[in-house]
Structures are given as structure tokens and as C-alpha cells.
Amino acid sequence: RGEQDRLIEASRLLFLCGDYEQSFERVTELLSRYILEEEPSAGREEAIRFCLQLRNQLEENGGQAVSGSLRNELIEWVQRSSRNAEEVEAMFTLLLLMEAHELFAQQSFAQALSLLLEGRQSPAPPGAHMSLSYSQFLSSWRSRSFLPVLNGRTEAAEIERAAVRAAEQIRAMDADLSGSPLAKVKRHVHGTLLLAMRCLKRWKDESTDPATWNIARAQARAVDTLFCHVSSFLPTTKSFLEELQQLVQAVND
Predict the structure, then answer these.
(1) Rounded distance between C-alpha atoms, residue 128 and residue 74, angstroms
(2) Structural domain total, the chain
(3) Whole-model pTM?
(4) Which superkingdom, per the lineage (predicted)?
(5) Last residue of a domain, one of 50, 78, 107
């Protein structure tokens, strides 16, 4: 708890001081810890609550929650460099992954899968009363999935194309190995593949609709194909490979 409390307090103070990079770095560190946890630790709920409060402060009702000089400072900071924009994208993507893990733990498998595949949009899109710059600012924070998205398509060619697009997106996260902010997301790729497959299996098991089974099977093939593409640049373990193949087989049965 001591290290967690230190990260939370440091992030809060740094945010108030306008040091957004250091503040968001601590948030992503907190998120990474809990995504990688196999068993919930003490203080988990407090840390998650803090991260969600920060996100809500930034995006809730557009400019109503973030107004005046703070809003302008954030816009200026994000637009200052692509790295700053990536820092925000990394934080919001890890928030999405954390939410998906929480939904899975609550046995909300369809919701978790939807979040992973469709991403998450701000619940209150910018209105006409807001400046265009802030509208662009919020839209750049849309959490995007890096899993192959089929949109109901089940053809082999579409599965391959979706997997290739997703693999390119993952490779680009830190293509030059410079330790960019999105490298923090890249370390969670394998865990996210397993989470998606677990969701697909449970979603299919709960359904009696053959159409749902076909969609689940196609999505499982897309995830497996994505793994084949990323395995050339993301090393994995034997245990991961065994579990992934077991899940793919279970969904296809």
C-alpha cells in the first residue's frame, strides 16, 4: 500500500502543478500494476477509483469539468509534442484494459468483449458550445482497441486483413524501441489476447444462438491470426501459447 499511496499522491500533486507528463506516468504505472495482477491486492479499489476520477475530470461533460486556464493548459500541453499526445493515449488505453479486466471479473463477458473490440468514447461528446480545439482534444483521447475488429464479418480474407491491421498498430506502438509512452501498452498485448479469448469462450458458452457462435469463432480466429503476426516481434512463453491454443480450440468446438 505504501508504494501505491505514494504514486497516487504524487500523481495528484503533479497534476495540480501542471506537470501532466509526470502525473500521467504515475497513473499508467498504477494501471499496469493492477492489469498484471493475478490476484487482487489490498488497495486495488482505491487505486482504480483514483484513476477513474482523473479520467472523468478530464472528459466529463467536455469543458464543464475541465474549464478555464486548466483546459487551455492541457490543450497546449498535448499539442506541444506527439509524445505528450501518446502519453494521454497510453493512459486512456490502459484504463480501457483495466475496465475490461474488471468487467470480466464481474462475469460481464459480453460487455468486456465489446469494450476491447469497440473501444470507449467519451459519454458526453463535445457540444457546439465548445471550441473546436477542445473537441479535437477530446476526440484524440478516444480509447482505441488494438485487437482485430471484424464488425460481424466472418470471411477468411477479412479475418486476415483485420489481423494484419491490428499487428501493424501494435508494431507501431514503439517501432524504434525508444521507450515511447505507448510501449507501456505494448507490454499488455499478450495478456489482452488471453482476456479477449476468455471473454469469447464464456460469451459463446452462454449463448444458444448459432449466429453468435459463428461470430465468436471468427473473432477467435482473428485473435489467433494476430498472435501469429506479432509473435515475430513480441516474444512469448510456452504457458501463454498453450493457454491461447486451448482457448481457440474451445471456442471453435
Answers:
(1) 20
(2) 2
(3) 0.86
(4) Eukaryota
(5) 107
